[in-house]
Amino acid sequence: MNRTVRIAVGSIVIGILVLGLKTLAWWLTGSVALLSDALESTVNVVTAVAALIAIRIAQRPADQDHPYGHHKAEFLSAVLEGVMIIIAALLILEEAYNGIRNPRMLDAPVAGLLINTAAGTINAVWCWMLLRQGRLLKSPALVADGYHLLSDVVTSGGVLVGVSLAIVTGYAILDPILAAVVAVNILWSGWKVMITSLGGLMDQAVSDDLLRDIRDTISGQAEGAIEAHDLRTRHAGSRTFIDFHLVVAGDVSVAQAHAICDRIETALKRRLDDAQITIHVEPEHKAKHSGVLVI
To answer: Residue ranges of the Cation efflux protein cytoplasmic domain (predicted)?
Structure first.
């Protein structure tokens, strides 16, 4: 079991623990806001399981039916997480609406707040770890799970404020109103997760900064060639795909052209160790006098 899978399993364990704490807090208080927090934690557990399944699929080696590998499975999981976040927000809005129509004072508010604070603290620590490790491991599923938990942390913070205000002021309606405000924030978080993940499914190119580094690396390592053109990039999970045409002079031998390609690939993999690189060598008359010029 590698580190990515271990973290995904840890998310399930943490999710179940936090769900139990938040459910207990809601049961003690009857708070609509705390119920909304518990509903989102239910989604956390479901999406953590989906992330684990996607990560296991994404790590399968390429086969006859999937010659480029299974890396995009993580993007599918991230899209699912975005959908589940939005569904959770809509459920919370429904509970908030019912609470606004029929506000009620809370039972055992102090105990409920303390338990919810403990659950929120656990989520905050795990959220930080997921985002940090997800970026280091280049795992879209872990990063999406981290952003999902971040929305849960914000939810817990808003809930604590709302319930505290309801207790201090005696205005029970503040509890469901804060739940509604938090739900709107969760909707925005779910939308961002979906848009980012859909970009990966649609073969979105690498960032401008990374593309600039790739172009500079090709230019600096292609001595003996004339130019590189039709450079294309895309992400698929943790893998980066790079392909381009390399133009060489007519008197360059196959062995010499191959050596240039090897030098470029080695340099690119020092920059992106997970890169899959395809170089198509062309004769001089195919030059377009554009793209990446050799230094």
So the answer is: 207-284
